[in-house]
Design a protein that fits this description.
Chain lengths: 308, 308
């Protein structure tokens, strides 16, 4: 029997992973917001540097989760994590006893909200390492990477996480199961907390320019995330900062996702990435003055966007 | 005999103070850059909320200092303090033995360069507390304040500083002589180092919005300037931060001069205000992480302006 999968938040990331799961044989439905009419008529067009070109025709195209009349084996929650979006309420109509929740989202300390709201459910936390952009209505460009890291937040994990990994692997995607997905989140945050806000506050610099001019600021921000991660019990490896710096030089001129959001007038994940890290720092009594400064400047940048 | 005064850097500030000195009876010449033709033909039109409206017709209007064939009793150096402008070289052609140099400029640690280059000269450091803007070619709007604080950097000060103060007072301007003008510079920097960069990095917020949303960041930046000032031997009074905050709430919605410069594509005094404060901090071994972060972000903001 086919796995039934419902994608909530069908942007670049949700659309791409959904398309891969459908390719692997799952019955994939999608909840679309602004592109509902287009996707319902034409599907989602994928242009991938790794997986080729094809059109993903979802099993069902829905305007909102409550329109899904079926029971999903997996819900893939792929929205951004922003204060104006209530993730718990969003998925409520489709959480059935058989359903496993998989959230593939950025940020740290974003799991508790879901775990507390759905204590009886199997919940999987996922991190996507991917360069994939929506280039026009219903058209995704997957330019590089793609790796997906998954980890269960449930003590008594079932074999369903293995099923999901098998599906992704069948589509030729690199997909890993990790023991400590929370530490993985902090590791990913090391890069995000530095480059994302700097790219916006600098007025739109790409990663290489940032590094060439102010590598030390990048390192200070990364170091503060490492200290918070470590103090909250999620030690990240010592060489992560050097590795991140070297990899970022290697990818040359990259535009961060937060800068993409900013330039398109979309809400930014300031709270999920910076605000939550600082809340965690406060709980354990750690001072993070560089992070705090960029966070507060980002709040002012967001405030400015709301003013006439 | 009339005092001969040459204004170098005839922007809003230089033009306004020059106009007052001419009103008080001095023979005031001006060096103009971009507005040379206009000012030569029409003079400088002043519209002041305190001193009324009049046209200031300079004694001589010059394109560059070396065109001044006379000997000035006072040179008023009123340019911005920016790395691309060599202040020492700029005034060299007009520094005569009889000349007293008065620089009315923002920033900290900006005096040594002049004192070292002109050790035989009487040098006066000045700070302007004024809201005055150039609104169109040759037209200045003086909207509020105006106070000028002067202090001699020369041990064997002559009576010339008193002459200058007498002139300013004759024009009804508030003009004070202070003992420690270097501490005054740090005091002024407390406000500037906080509000100027935040206004730019936030994308253009006015002072009231900044305060209402992120007063604590403002206080952290101000506090770091106070610590540097104190560590370098220029104790500022304990209540200066509270006073600055209260006064800024009182002036309501004010656009900083750095934001004005940024919006008009003019160079900003990032080094004079932030860079120099951080150099001073480094010399005395003080850590200023909030200031350092905004400084580095400002350097990136400046870098972005130079890129295509």
């Amino acid at each position: 029997m086919k796995n039934k999968i419902l994608i909530i938040g069908t942007g670049a990331l949700g659309g791409f992973y959904g398309a891969l799961l459908a390719k692997a044989g799952a019955e994939v439905s999608v909840v679309c917001h602004s592109e509902y009419e287009y996707v319902k008529q034409y599907g989602i067009n994928i242009n991938s540097s790794i997986f080729g070109k094809w059109t993903f025709t979802p099993s069902q195209v829905l305007q909102k989760p409550e329109d899904y009349s079926d029971t999903a084996d997996f819900i893939l929650l792929c929205t951004k994590v922003i204060p104006s979006l209530d993730r718990v309420a969003l998925i409520k109509p489709v959480m059935k006893p058989e359903t496993t929740l998989v959230f593939i989202q950025n940020g740290v300390e974003i799991e508790q909200e879901l775990v507390l709201a759905y204590p009886e459910y199997e919940i999987i936390s996922g991190l996507a390492y991917i360069c994939c952009n929506r280039i026009s209505k219903g058209h995704l460009l997957h330019s590089a990477y793609g790796r997906l890291t998954l980890g269960s937040l449930t003590d008594s994990a079932t074999s369903k996480i293995e099923n999901l990994i098998t599906l992704f692997k069948a589509s030729k995607l690199e997909c890993f199961l990790v023991d400590n997905i929370i530490a993985e989140r902090w590791k990913k945050c090391v890069w995000n907390a530095a480059f994302n806000p700097i790219s916006v506050l600098s007025g739109g610099l790409l990663t290489l320019s940032i590094l060439q001019s102010q590598e030390s600021l990048v390192r200070q921000l990364m170091n503060e995330i490492c200290l918070i991660a470590s103090a909250t019990g999620h030690q990240v490896s010592d060489d992560i900062i050097d590795l991140n710096i070297a990899n970022t030089y290697a990818i040359d001129t990259y535009k961060t996702s937060m800068l993409e959001d900013f330039e398109h007038g979309r809400p930014m994940e300031t709270e999920a990435i910076l605000g939550n890290a600082l809340l965690a720092a406060k709980k354990v009594g750690i001072d993070s003055p560089h992070l705090e400064t960029v966070y507060r400047l980002m709040k002012l940048r967001e405030l400015k966007l709301t003013l006439p």
